[in-house]
């Protein structure tokens, strides 16, 4: 009977518990299916520090090579280092990681040559169908001429590429605390930061996929506590936290206070617009702050609003020729990085902006952080459609209120907005609200939560 991969193959990647939901046998089938769907003659593969990653990665390589495809293994890497290799070598790629998920999880992020995403609508569904069919019948027969599996180091070239996109040569010396969360930031940061005028204070740089100190998920405030404390103790200029596969970066200021990813999006957007002659398209998802499109317009750019999710961002970037894109979740996308997301490049922009002036980070980002946001609040509901309909009914027709359905339901007025989106994989509704002041945001947030949780 064919394996049911519905819980394993997500909208943008493969992710599940090892070995309960998948193992090296399935990984080998995924390797064969991937190269057939993307019609590759050669691919590049990397993996994170999870205990299961080397075995899964090598099994995937065997499956690809058995189909006559040459495989370049770059070994331990961050996800954006794999995207660099896919772009620089112009090869489809596979990254073995479960990002910020707990240790028992693992997954695969897939891309076509040039780091173009592979998601449900761009090949992942076909890959899943092939693997399911092969588990039901016979696995694909190996071809007569097997592909080769070779090793290549890319860390130095990746670091050089990033440093070539941001000028850090004339910044003032900065003291920066970096929490790698025992993830891949501990592998990439020392090389990327080497030779820069930075006093680096490393935290949890030891690669350990069991995450002995805290989860490598800086989106959860509990996982920033150690970094915030260390920044204050060290009297550092800032702190940076990376997630498990180091494709997202989170920033705290000199007081240890978190800097909103929307503020980072606005700051980097202003810098990228200046670097491109004061013009260009900037992508932002619909739950980033009002600050983002405002700053983009003030700096001569054109803001474009999209749905949440990297496949939507990357597709819109390719369509519009955008120079930069940002999400509330601290994913940052760059035209000069094959439209792929790289938290490390965003971190370099923050260091360059801070080191290029004399004030503290809190003062620098204040210009980009103009409103009060709720953050994302999840609520378990029995019927997502019913609760969305109740919210629509409560606000529709009110004077000065506009509604749109780009991604869930967004309600906007002159003084506040909120968005409610259903989760694709869980019985959840996700609320984000923002207003011109704290009292208004609190009032709106609580009103909407009362309807969601009624």
TrEMBL record:
<dbReference type="InterPro" id="IPR005845">
    <property type="entry name" value="A-D-PHexomutase_a/b/a-II"/>
</dbReference>
<dbReference type="GO" id="GO:0016868">
    <property type="term" value="F:intramolecular phosphotransferase activity"/>
</dbReference>
<comment type="similarity">
    <text>Belongs to the phosphohexose mutase family.</text>
</comment>
<dbReference type="Pfam" id="PF02879">
    <property type="entry name" value="PGM_PMM_II"/>
</dbReference>
<keyword id="KW-0479">Metal-binding</keyword>
<protein>
    <submittedName>
        <fullName>Phosphomannomutase/phosphoglucomutase</fullName>
    </submittedName>
</protein>
<feature type="domain" description="Alpha-D-phosphohexomutase C-terminal">
    <location>
        <begin position="376"/>
        <end position="449"/>
    </location>
</feature>
<feature type="domain" description="Alpha-D-phosphohexomutase alpha/beta/alpha">
    <location>
        <begin position="7"/>
        <end position="135"/>
    </location>
</feature>
<dbReference type="InterPro" id="IPR016055">
    <property type="entry name" value="A-D-PHexomutase_a/b/a-I/II/III"/>
</dbReference>
<dbReference type="InterPro" id="IPR005841">
    <property type="entry name" value="Alpha-D-phosphohexomutase_SF"/>
</dbReference>
<dbReference type="InterPro" id="IPR005843">
    <property type="entry name" value="A-D-PHexomutase_C"/>
</dbReference>
<dbReference type="InterPro" id="IPR036900">
    <property type="entry name" value="A-D-PHexomutase_C_sf"/>
</dbReference>
<keyword id="KW-0460">Magnesium</keyword>
<dbReference type="Pfam" id="PF02878">
    <property type="entry name" value="PGM_PMM_I"/>
</dbReference>
<dbReference type="InterPro" id="IPR005844">
    <property type="entry name" value="A-D-PHexomutase_a/b/a-I"/>
</dbReference>
<dbReference type="GO" id="GO:0005975">
    <property type="term" value="P:carbohydrate metabolic process"/>
</dbReference>
<feature type="domain" description="Alpha-D-phosphohexomutase alpha/beta/alpha">
    <location>
        <begin position="264"/>
        <end position="371"/>
    </location>
</feature>
<keyword id="KW-0413">Isomerase</keyword>
<keyword id="KW-0597">Phosphoprotein</keyword>
<dbReference type="InterPro" id="IPR005846">
    <property type="entry name" value="A-D-PHexomutase_a/b/a-III"/>
</dbReference>
<dbReference type="Pfam" id="PF02880">
    <property type="entry name" value="PGM_PMM_III"/>
</dbReference>
<dbReference type="Pfam" id="PF00408">
    <property type="entry name" value="PGM_PMM_IV"/>
</dbReference>
<dbReference type="GO" id="GO:0046872">
    <property type="term" value="F:metal ion binding"/>
</dbReference>
<feature type="domain" description="Alpha-D-phosphohexomutase alpha/beta/alpha">
    <location>
        <begin position="156"/>
        <end position="256"/>
    </location>
</feature>
């Amino acid at each position: 009977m064919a394996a049911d991969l519905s819980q394993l193959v997500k909208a943008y990647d493969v992710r599940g518990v090892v070995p309960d939901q998948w193992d090296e046998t399935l990984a080998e089938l995924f390797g064969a299916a991937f190269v057939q769907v993307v019609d590759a003659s050669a691919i590049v593969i990397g993996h994170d520090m999870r205990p299961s990653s080397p075995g899964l990665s090598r099994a995937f390589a065997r499956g690809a090579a058995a189909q006559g495809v040459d495989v370049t293994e770059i070994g331990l890497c961050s996800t954006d280092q794999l995207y660099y290799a896919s772009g620089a070598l112009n090869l489809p790629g596979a990254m073995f990681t479960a990002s910020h998920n707990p240790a028992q999880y693992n997954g695969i992020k897939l891309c076509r040559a040039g780091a173009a995403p592979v998601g449900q609508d761009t090949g992942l569904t076909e890959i899943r169908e092939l693997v399911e069919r092969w588990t039901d019948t016979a696995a694909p027969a190996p071809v007569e001429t097997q592909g080769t599996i070779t090793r290549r180091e890319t860390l130095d070239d990746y670091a050089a590429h990033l440093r070539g996109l941001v000028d850090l040569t004339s910044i003032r010396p900065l003291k920066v605390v970096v929490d790698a969360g025992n993830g891949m930031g501990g592998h990439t940061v020392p090389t990327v930061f080497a030779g820069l005028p930075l006093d680096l204070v490393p935290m949890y740089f030891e690669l350990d996929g069991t995450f002995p100190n805290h989860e490598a998920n800086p989106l959860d405030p509990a996982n920033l506590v150690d970094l915030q404390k260390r920044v204050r103790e060290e009297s550092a200029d800032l702190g940076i936290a990376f997630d498990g596969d180091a494709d997202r970066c989170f920033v705290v200021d000199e007081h240890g206070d978190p800097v909103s990813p929307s503020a980072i999006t606005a700051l980097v957007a202003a810098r990228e617009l200046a670097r491109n002659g004061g013009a260009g398209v900037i992508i932002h998802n619909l739950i980033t702050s009002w600050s983002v499109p405002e700053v983009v317009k003030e700096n001569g750019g054109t803001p474009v609003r999209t749905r949440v999710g990297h496949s939507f961002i990357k597709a819109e970037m390719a369509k519009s020729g955008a120079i930069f894109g940002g999400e509330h979740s601290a994913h940052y996308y760059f035209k000069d990085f094959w439209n792929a997301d790289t938290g490390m490049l965003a971190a370099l922009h923050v260091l360059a902006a801070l080191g290029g002036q004399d004030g503290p980070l809190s003062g620098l980002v204040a210009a980009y952080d103009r409103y009060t946001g709720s953050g994302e609040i999840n609520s378990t509901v029995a019927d997502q459609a019913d609760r969305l309909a109740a919210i629509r009914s409560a606000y529709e027709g009110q004077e000065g209120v506009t509604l749109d359905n780009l991604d869930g339901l967004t309600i906007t007025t002159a003084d506040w907005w909120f968005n409610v989106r259903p989760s694709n994989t869980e019985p959840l509704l996700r609320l984000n609200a923002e207003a011109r002041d704290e009292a208004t945001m609190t009032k709106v947030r609580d009103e909407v939560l009362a309807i969601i949780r009624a």
